[in-house]
């Protein structure tokens, strides 16, 4: 086994979180190896909190040649492409590693990536979005280690604890009892209506005395403000947050309610109790990791699986009423009463 390993996963936030167990497994198996990760500048902050990585190499499209020179200078023995795009495969191959591991062509997001690998792992589940697949993407990612002779049963998510003034203020203001609500999402058809998030916040305050903190990302502030406005004073809006802020907030939360988004997957990795609201993506593949978590899903009726825009006049998430989510909240809180 090589003593220098390169991992390639440029983005996005949730996908990077789902790949962290690969780095953790490599560190456990090869404690003296150098493990580097090539990531986009946008998501470097997440990897700064992952202690099992030695170097975070930042890739920008405008500096590809400089990045390749840096990769080649490291003399990697193994490169693992966890993204499955033509760009990521080229970068893994251009590193000069003698072994380049990726997925088999049937599972790749871009099948032209396959010729750049020396070793390919076939998950045996058809294409990347095959509805018959019931394994979580975390387990499938860990399969990339099989060509290296590693079989991992239990994934680990090593993420450092961090200090956050924002999280400290939230804990002081709420007495340490708060829920995180995250109404935004990159795909429009992953967004449950913000006014319904507000109604959930009002019910959490009324039934459990739990205040809600509404988080938001780039371009999502108006959505978050609408949720707060509909909460009857039960929710407050966070200012702009860093990854460190989100990690600290999630560690202290009694509950998080959100769709299929990066903050959800990060919070799942941290052990935050989750109620997930799912439409065009399958909870079995992309859902919360803990069996105690609760999911409200329209996977069975969705007509736009893994498409960014809904094919129907009314997206399937609109069929999910507030009371259905509140029932899921009750189940999740009952499963872990010590967090309330």
Helical amount: 25-40%
As laid out across the biggest beta sheet, the strand order is 3-2-1-4-5-6
Strand content: 15-25%
How many separate helices? 12
Low-confidence residue ranges:
none
Secondary structure class reads alpha/beta
End-to-end Cα distance, whole Å, is 46 Å
What does the main sheet amount to? 6 strands, parallel
Shape: globular
Average of the residue pLDDT scores: 94
Radius of gyration: 20 Å
* Topology as a string of helices (H) and strands (E): EHEHEHEHEEHHEHEHEHEHEHEH
* Number of strand elements: 12
Considering the chains and any ligands shown, give keywords for the structure.
single chain; 340 residues; alpha/beta; 12 helices
Q: Could you characterize what this model shows?
A:
Helices cover 34% and strands 16% of the residues. The longest helix is centred in the N-terminal third of the chain and has 17 residues, at 13-29. It is built from 12 helices and 12 strands. The chain has a 6-stranded parallel beta sheet with strand order 3-2-1-4-5-6, sandwiched between helices. It is globular.
Report a brief summary of the structure.
With 340 residues, the protein is an alpha/beta fold.
